[in-house]
Amino acid sequence: MKYTGNVIKYGDNVDTDVIIPARYLNTSDHKELASHCMEDLDKTFTSRVKQGDIITAGFNFGCGSSREHAPIAIKASGVSLVIARSFARIFYRNSINIGLAIVECPEAVDGINEGDKVEADLDNGIIKNLTTGAEFKTEPFPEFVQKIIENGGLINSIAEGVIK
Known about the structure:
By secondary structure, this protein is of the alpha/beta class. It is 31% helix and 20% strand. Strands 4-3-2-1-5-6-7 form a seven-stranded mixed β-sheet. The chain is globular and about 45 Å long.
């Protein structure tokens, strides 16, 4: 699994309430959720995010409530990958379940700036900052997690017989 995109960078403790505010939880429409993604943290996010972009963030990304709407909104906005120092555990699992690639790599977060172009090879655990040439190592995803993400989430993977 390889991802290439421009970086949008955030700090520590980005919680699910700013990823997708509670006032929009009355819909399950992915496009509608994406249209409000990050609006309480970054009013420019939806106007500047492009298909394939990558979010980098600090510690505890996705803390707060256990709503699946948060990773759905991020994925539906076009973000292909989130790289953070650490994730809230429920957000981490929800992301995999809906097919959003996420990886913890503090060194990459430190070595990547807003607007940098990044390539991540999660099969081999290599993140490259194409803007600066810096390279970072991370743990590759286990094969079963790769399959879940490649198939667009856990439900799709089960339905297609990839995961039993």
